[in-house]
Amino acid sequence: MNVVFLQDVMFEYFGPMYISAVLKKAGHRVDLIIPKNRTYFHEMKEAQVLALSCMSSGHQWYLDRAKEVKEKLGIPVVMGGPHPTFFPEVINSPYLDYICLGEGEQAMLDLVRALEKGEDTEHIPNIWTKNNQNPLRLLPDDLDEIPFADRTLYYKYPFLRNLSTKKFLAGRGCPFHCTFCYNQTIQEMYRGKGRFVRMRKPEKVIEEIQDVLGRYPCRTVRFSDDSFAVSTSWFKQFAELYKKEIGLPWTFLLRADELDEETIRLAKEAGCHSAYFGIESGSERIRNGILQKNISNEDIHRLAGLLDKAKIKFGTYNMVGSPTETLEEALSTVQINIDIKTDIPTCSILQPYPRTKLFDDCRESGLIRADFNPDDLPTMFEESPMRLENKRPLENLHKLFYLAVKFPFLFPLVKVLIHWPANPLFKLIFFLSYGHRSFTAFNAGILESIQLGLSLRKTVYKINAKNLF
User: Fold this and answer.
1) How confident is the model over 317-331, as pLDDT tens digits?
2) Max Cα separation, the chain?
3) How many CB atoms lie within 10 A of CB 146?
4) Phi, psi (5° rounding) for residue 91?
């Protein structure tokens, strides 16, 4: 069968790439279209199934496309990704025939096979229909059995193909329980369904990198795993192999309480260019009491010192607008980044996503409407949906955060400016900050940084910052 993905932003997602690889291995055809306008139907003339990989912050665009395709082509429509996984009631949309929950490679293969052969599609694990809510199947234990991500799906677009940084996944699953994240929810969904945290063999990760390097331009390798260093022994094996076989600059995500001086030294010797970790808040009351990050200020300063000693640039993820956060606590988030001399700071406005523990806490305390739902979500780059004191200064601080951290002498001025009305200048500073960030983070050239900055005009309001950068 011919399966066609539609998506709204010029960004490569691993879900469609892995599903495409599995479907193509079984002999099916797969394409992906990022429409520039409503004339995309001529590219779908041979489509037999429409696939939508959807996040909650942009789900309405996908439902609109499902309606258009259903009315014009009448083909089956299946939605997968985070949104239907956490909000499966979306199956009630009249324009969706199926939704796919959780890890979808085998489920999509079973569905496409059944559609091709005219067989029953009502009883496929991970697939919901209007009539059946099927259970999740066991998690695939050996990730090395899954084909490499199909990058041809995206690399027909020159902008994505020519980006100097290429992204990879070494494993799946996060073992931690932060209240603002869906990981805790999906861990519960998959309880009893197999190992949640799984890593590929270092040799297979290296093999995939070599395959990509042989076909596409690449100056920096990016690992997008939620916590690439969750296993220190695995990390050491990988670093030694990467140094021998690849040698390009690379970057990864970790927690501030992971890795010691020896392991960080190995990473540097293997070519590690930069590492990223979450601070979230400069206040331990917010970070560990509200967000349950369980990371101390001491952990943050220790890791920053070790990375600085190893001459590895580091970036941090931060949030403003947490429940009960005072303006002083938000400003302390800027201050801790200044103190540790963060190279690449990122700041978001916290969003209490429905069906996270944080959302339940916010609703119970009256910080958010009782009937709040995914349709009401702004994005973490716009505004807060919560009833907060000092809401406008917090939202302004988000726009000026990068400026204050990178140029500490401006911090006193920023403390004054955040009390001004919101204005286009602050938004412009925000976008310029992200352009500078991409230039700093991955050795991007000036032209590429400009292209990334222009693409941010659309994508930055749709996707998670740590996946973009």
Assistant:
1) 999 999 999 999 999
2) 67
3) 18
4) -60, -20
